[in-house]
Amino acid sequence: MDNGHFHQQKFYYLRGEFNQVSMNKLSFVFGRKNYQLLFAGLGFLILGYILMSGGGSPDPSQFNADELFSPRRITLAPLIVILGYIIVGVAIMWKSKEDLTPVKPEVPSTNKKRKK
Prior knowledge:
Radius of gyration: 26 Å
Number of helices: 3
Helix content: 40-55%
Shape: rod-shaped
Number of strands: 2
Distance between the termini: 34 Å
Strand content: 5-15%
Largest sheet: 2 strands, antiparallel
């Protein structure tokens, strides 16, 4: 007896045949490509925010407008941040071709005829 835990089984259609998969088996929401795109997007976000930071002066009585309003901080960095958000959005919405495989609604019978 398994201490009162309900063991649930599901059938998935993979590579032309039904495979029985246990619910206890670890499965990820996203595929490998999704995670690659997600981490690339996060890298762009981090890079953009790093490029946007800085421009301060060690002396609070001085103001350096050229450093604060440089094209890197007001043009390049926001574009990189926007690109990062777009990549993260694509990573979340991306569906691989394997995920688009139609699943047959019927469940195979467990009563198979034995070969003699």
